[in-house]
Amino acid sequence: MTAVDGMTYVSFSIAGHCFGLCASEVEEVVMAPEITEVPLAPKYLSGLINLRGQILPALRGSVLLGLPEDGETGMVSLILRLKSGLVGLQVDRIGEVLQVDASNCEPAPGNLSPALKKSLKGICRTGGRLLLELDGSALEPATLAEMNRN
Amino acid sequence: MEASAENTGLTSSEEQELLKEFLAESNDNLARLDTDLVQLEQEPGNHELLGAIFRAVHTLKGSCGFFGYARLQAVAHKAEHLLSELRDGKRALTSGLSALLLRSADAMKRMIDAIGRGKGEGDVFERSLLQQLDAALEHVEERHAAPVLESPREPSANESAGTPNSLRVEVSVLDRLLDLVGELVITKNQLHQYRDGSTGTDTQLESIVQRLAVITSDLQDGVMRTRMQSVGTLWSKLPRVLRDLSVNLGKKFTLETNGAETELDRTIIETIRDPLIHIIRNACDHGIEAPDVRSARQKPAAGRISLNAFHEAGQVTIEISDDGAGIDPSIVLAKAVERGLLTEWAAQQLSEREIVNLVLMPGFSTAKEVTNLSGRGVGMDVVKTNVERVGGSVELVSRPQSGTTVRLRVPLTLAIVPGLIVTAGKHLLAIPQANLQEVVKCEAEQARTALETIQGNLFHRWRGELIPVGDLSTVLQVPPARSRTLNLVILIAEGRRFGLIVDRIRGTQEIVVKPLAAHLSGLNEYSGATIMGDGKLALILDVTTIASRLGVASGTDYRDGTAEEKAEDSAEHAVLTFAAGSAVRLALPLPSVERVEDVSMKDIQQVTGRALLDRNNHLLPVIDVAKLLGTESAADDVRKVIVCQEGEQVVGLLVDQVFGVSQCDPAHLFQSPHRFVRGTVRAGETVADVLRLEELVSNSNRQGAA
Description:
The complex is a heterodimer.
Chain A: E1 6-14, E2 17-22, E3 26-31, E4 35-36, E5 45-51, E6 54-60, H1 61-64, E7 76-82, E8 85-91, E9 93-101, E10 105-106, H2 114-118, E11 120-126, E12 129-134, H3 141-149
Parallel strand pairs in A: 2-12, 6-8
Antiparallel strand pairs in A: 1-2, 1-9, 3-7, 4-5, 5-6, 7-8, 10-11, 11-12
Chain B: H1 12-42, H2 47-67, H3 70-87, H4 95-116, H5 127-138, H6 157-161, H7 171-197, H8 203-226, E1 228-230, H9 232-235, H10 238-249, E2 252-258, E3 263-265, H11 266-287, H12 291-296, E4 302-312, E5 315-322, H13 329-338, H14 344-348, H15 352-356, H16 380-389, E6 393-399, E7 403-411, E8 416-424, E9 427-432, E10 436-442, H17 444-450, E11 451-454, E12 457-462, E13 465-471, H18 472-476, E14 486-493, E15 496-502, E16 504-512, E17 526-531, E18 537-541, H19 543-550, H20 564-569, E19 573-579, E20 586-589, E21 593-600, E22 604-607, E23 610-615, E24 618-624, H21 625-628, E25 638-646, E26 649-655, E27 657-664, E28 670-671, E29 677-683, E30 686-691, H22 693-705
Parallel strand pairs in B: 2-4, 9-18, 13-15, 20-30, 24-26
Antiparallel strand pairs in B: 1-3, 4-5, 5-7, 6-7, 8-9, 8-16, 10-14, 11-12, 12-13, 14-15, 17-18, 19-20, 19-27, 21-25, 22-23, 23-24, 25-26, 28-29, 29-30
């Protein structure tokens, strides 16, 4: 983090929406990784990625956030460091790294879909665009298992 | 850290290093102390042993003084004082004294644990222990009548020479080494695949690949060996456990061990540590009778616990036997029905062996009263869960009045295991070799006859045994990619064989087992994943779960409510239907049927009062069902024998024709007055009389005896 009163975000898009994740949570970006499907897995799990000998689960961003899937869904894998370990988040496109001033961020409005609202920390205004700030803890296995039950 | 070695002039990292060493050494010393003290109780005159105990406590006292752990030092100091008086013959070892010394060892262990967790010496001040130690030291009456012991011998040469040959290594270093070896194995596989794919021959490359393969395999062996621990390290704790149990229960025990040198990977040792203690507690508490009962049964007063470990078929078997009362099947059965673990109908279908193994089911505990040793709600099911988690199995064998044996089977290691790679649709899957019995490939012509369909259920006749067959694609809910060849793998899970249809078989290879991320923990069908030579991933199948999904695992068909999806099936039960003479269609519960064989009447020998079938030098008593039910048999020379198990006895039922397996609903059993018929059920399209196997067998036994 370079700015003291702001945050550095990695921006990316899923189903036409622009999202951001705190740069410190993103380990690396893998373009078009080979994903091994897992039979019987819940829909939000697109499969497993072999990241240099480490086997990571790949999560389908569009399903998790309740967004429609289009043709190019999930071509890029964002490798995130969660409390439970590394996971891949499948997104459509990767954007720039953005500096956002803390004063430009506010909590997510109430009229979003529940699936989306639960996964957001807030919304930031940056350069005339809105950046939906993802909450990494929404991707933890315990949170997802609960979501799957409901 | 609460205390520090202020006057030593060491840097904090040096001090940390020393502290680590101190903790490791103290843990070793205290672990030995337990065993040695218990042995000293039995051999109070063993001077060498006393010397060893004294030295261990002395070392501990010295080290904790250096680190400034005053409370630990106080306990060690007083214990050492008592030991020195014992050694010098100033007092005798009484049972009170040895209990006090053991309690001191426990207290020191607790403090060392707390220091290890960075909590200083813990919150307990051990005041009462210190007071008791003081009281014991002042107690003069105990200071006479002690056998005068010789002065302590000098430490022998081999004792001091023993240390330089071994080295203490952090477990994390070994784990990292194993990870690297895993990567190396994968890279080697990749190189193999590359070489196989390239055209032309390069002899130099060939020899390098060969050499690499040899080195990798040696290195893998070597690293595996560093992680191996002998089962004896687990057993060394047991004398102390038994001593405490003996005091608490007022029973006496002797311990026999065999095969303590058998080695296992440390992760597996860790997994079976608690189950082992639990089994032994159970044996002492529930298995071995009270001394008066034992003497009435003419058994030695001290109950015998024997442990036996050995290698068997790439796995390690650990048997824990006692010479107690065994397990009463009728009590187990009553309890299981009372707890709603299975229905009464289902209960009647179980063999004695199966009944005894009900003890392993979740929510089962046969202890009539809750004691402070076992029966805290965690029972044998926890043992089963722990052992199965590492791919092992648990089996109980009970010999009424003469004891119980618990048999644990665990793999040697978990990290790198041989496995069979198969496909289902486009998916690659690995099956651990430990579960694999045989691979059956049937070409087009044979493929049609290899499987028999009975009421929609598939069966395969494998070495004369009729085994259920399931389809991997169906279990995994993936579209199959069939070829003209039928690929059937014969698997074993929980002692039951079954066949699994797979699309293709890719061959066997060493698979490096990688655990699945927490995101996949709900998928019990897989026990892990592995990386193939080309970098692709293969999921490792958990054969036990696959078996239960197919409904072919032992017990799942007639167990109630073990899983939600089983709830629907629980009302339905499988029976084998057949005909004998002109009697109506007959049926037997499928669990009691072992196999069906064709027999020629001339193979059946009529001896006094009974008929015997001679098969592979083994005589099988045969019951002619038609004759028994008072009808005439169809006169065919070739008939069928249904081999069944009733209790400990295996019998053959001679019948005319076997139709197959049907589902029936036991709730709609129409009771029959006939002695040999339990009742009539609807089995598939028709009705059938379910035979009372136990009546048939006891009738035949009576006739044989008459």
